[in-house]
Design a protein that fits this description.
- The protein is of the alpha/beta class.
- The protein has two domains: about 80 residues, 2-Layer Sandwich (Alpha-Beta Plaits); about 140 residues, Rossmann fold (3-Layer(aba) Sandwich), CATH 3.40.50.150.
- Strand 13 and strand 14 form a beta hairpin.
- The longest helix has 15 residues.
- The protein starts with a strand and ends with a strand.
């Protein structure tokens, strides 16, 4: 049991989406490290030593007239994150081929079996965007291809890419919690060709990839897409998710600037995952 003291916020958000998604992204930049989506919004947690009474001043969505957000907060002692996610984390199977499970779950009869301990990082496979990106990876050829997994979360997509024969693979996340968790999960799945890096698009430099995977929110994608594309090899594939069906025109317009063509769309509960080629 951890002795770390946390400040826990309970946010009630209306409309729920995309309000909750935007709020989580902004809170992450402010230093909040763990999130649990609820029926009414999200619970967010930050270590007390990282907290101050002005922590929400730069959270722009709280001042938006498009959303109604109410919140309360309190001090929480001894948060056991493993216990929290174990209570609700059930194994998933995508297309009958890929399972995503915890170490304590029974091994299913699937071709690709991914074992993770997410520690509240994004990317258990349960969220629609991760589920759809797994679907994309399953139905595309990754053998011998170099891959970038941008915003890797738990590292689940990078792990599946290696299982499908990709190498080398860079898995990158700006969040230290996700960086550490991806390192753990890469080791847990005995991956040999994944390098986990902490940072954002600015660390890409002159790296080159055959495939780019980015499951990040809409605003970051639109801002950083140009940087990603400079790293894409000729005849490369780009898989994008983390946004809604209504966002497709904006995403496609930005991709078209860099001569990317939309060739495949997967939709689930208004969320989408797109495949582009150059």
């Amino acid at each position: 049991m951890s002795n770390t003291i946390y400040i826990g916020y309970d946010f009630k958000v209306s409309p729920l989406q995309p309000g909750t998604e935007i709020l989580i992204a902004e809170l992450g930049y402010a230093g909040f490290e763990s999130f649990v989506e609820t029926e009414e919004g999200v619970s967010a947690y930050i270590q007390k030593e990282e907290w101050n009474d002005a922590i929400l001043e730069d959270i722009q969505i709280l001042g938006s007239t498009e959303f109604q957000i109410n919140y309360s907060f309190s001090e929480i002692e001894q948060v056991n994150w493993n216990q929290e996610w174990e209570k609700n984390f059930n194994p998933i199977i995508v297309e009958g081929e890929c399972s995503v499970r915890a170490p304590f779950h029974e091994k299913p009869d699937t071709k690709y079996d991914i074992i993770i301990k997410p520690k509240m990082s994004f990317g258990t496979g349960h969220h629609e965007t991760t589920h759809m990106m797994i679907h994309h990876i399953l139905k595309n050829d990754f053998e011998g291809k170099s891959v970038l997994d941008m915003g890797c979360g738990t590292g689940v997509l990078a792990i599946l890419a290696e299982m499908k024969g990709a190498k080398p693979i860079d898995a990158i996340d700006y969040d230290n919690w996700c960086f550490i968790n991806s390192l753990e999960n890469v080791e847990r799945n005995n991956c040999k060709h994944i390098t986990v890096l902490e940072g954002d698009a600015s660390i890409l430099g002159d790296r080159k990839y055959d495939v780019i995977i980015a499951n990040i929110n809409r605003n970051i994608l639109l801002n950083d897409l140009k940087t990603y594309i400079t790293c894409l090899n000729t005849h490369g594939d780009v898989f994008l998710s983390g946004f809604y069906k209504d966002d497709i025109p904006a995403i496609e317009e930005e991709c078209n600037k860099y001569h990317l063509k939309l060739v495949d769309t997967i939709e689930k509960n208004q969320w989408v995952a797109l495949k582009f080629i150059n």
